[in-house]
Design goal:
single chain; alpha+beta; Alpha-Beta Plaits; MutS, DNA mismatch repair protein, domain I; DNA polymerase, domain 1; five-stranded mixed sheet; four-stranded antiparallel sheet; 14 helices; 12 strands; 20% strand
């Protein structure tokens, strides 16, 4: 089957994404928080928003945002500490609902998953109907709302689940896929971050239609290994299967700063934010790993990495932070400034046997990585 032709496999795939999951759980369990702007995370100078309620998002509060920035945008913002053990319990309830309909469930994190219902266990035969049943059961059993994307492949289903949030559903049928993708801004393509979008804009590529107009050779010249994914995705094509036992290789993220970090204090303060953000992601994914890697990019764009592996899985945030700080100390002091810092946990449990399909990380961003301007 050619990558330039529609996906003829005609799978029935649902992507379920819980609405403001952590914050919604807190509002469910504490009625005094309902209808108010809520952020899960620390309120200290070094705190980071792990999740924000929709009331808070109206003020521009987003996950991974520094708490001081969030508070500045929303003075009435209420900070609550995370309760990951509760979030995990709710996540297990939700996954049990998924498995009533299919054994092909691929969780991406505690609050989202793909479900292949091409052959559904209840014999319903209609993916849209199944998605509505799942959403209704989630609401009944947990008191929470979920949004769903229904389509013939993973790429489009995931994008569709974000179309009508919160508490909505979007269905993209096979004959609609190419036109749907054509109308998307390139930033909606998973793996296209701010820097890549900026490069695309300079090439006059702003939408899926603009991407589709490019040859694969052109995309290879400008976007390297991502070219095949971009070529297929811009045509609404994605042949990947939903894998029930997918094993990730790493969890991490990086932050690009608008102003270079020069002083030791600035470096340490920025690094503490990254520790908080990445550890939240590690807990959200329930990951266990043995290798911590620091990445730094200097003002002149030189890049360095430092890694440390242990003979055991990193026990908790304190150990993760201690290793990270030790790695940071190895590149200090900084003479010319740092424009990017990142941390990654790898050598994850079970990852040694994983065989990732080409382009998966670019398409799904399975690891909750971040790359944003400060």
């Amino acid at each position: 089957m050619s990558d330039s032709t529609p996906d003829l496999l005609q799978r029935k795939i649902i992507h379920i994404d819980m609405d403001a999951f952590f914050a919604s759980v807190e509002q469910r369990d504490f009625p005094e928080l309902r209808g108010k702007p809520v952020a899960v995370g620390g309120s200290s100078k070094r705190g980071v928003v792990a999740a924000a309620s929709y009331e808070a998002r109206k003020f521009g509060v987003r996950s991974a945002m520094a708490s001081v920035t969030a508070k500045r945008r929303c003075p009435d913002l209420i900070f609550v500490k995370h309760r990951f053990e509760v979030y995990r319990e709710v996540s297990q309830q939700i996954r049990a609902i998924f498995r009533m309909h299919s054994d092909l469930v691929e969780p991406l994190s505690l609050d989202e998953a793909y479900i292949d219902v091409t052959e559904d266990k209840m014999g319903i035969g209609n993916a849209t109907r199944i998605a509505e049943m799942i959403r209704a059961d989630i609401k009944k059993q947990t008191g929470l709302t979920a949004s769903a994307g229904v389509s013939y492949n993973k790429f489009i289903a995931k994008i569709a689940s974000d179309q009508n949030k919160p508490d909505g559903i979007c269905v993209i049928k096979p004959h609609q896929g190419a036109d749907f993708v054509a109308g998307l801004p390139v930033r909606r393509f998973y793996g296209v971050g701010p820097k890549t979008a900026e490069r695309m804009a300079k090439l006059d590529i702003h939408t899926g239609a603009d991407l589709r107009a490019q040859s694969q050779d052109f995309l290879s010249q400008h976007f390297g290994k991502s070219a095949g994914y971009l070529f297929r995705a811009s045509r609404g094509v994605d042949h990947r299967e939903v894998r029930a036992h997918r094993i990730r290789k790493s969890v991490g993220g990086e932050r690009t700063y608008g102003d270079d970090l020069v002083s030791d204090n600035d470096m340490h303060d920025a690094f503490e934010h990254i520790i908080d953000i990445v550890w939240n992601s590690i807990e959200k994914c329930e990951a266990r790993g043995r290798t911590v890697t620091l990445k730094a990019k200097y003002a002149d764009f030189r890049q360095v990495t430092r890694s440390k592996s242990t003979d055991h899985y990193v026990a908790d945030k304190n150990e993760f932070a201690a290793i990270g700080r030790d790695l940071l100390g190895q590149i200090m002091p900084v003479e010319n400034g740092v424009r990017l810092l990142g941390l990654t946990l790898s050598s994850l449990e079970g990852a040694e046997s994983a065989e990732q399909e080409e382009g998966d990380a670019k398409n799904d961003q399975i690891q909750p990585a971040f790359d944003f301007q400060a």
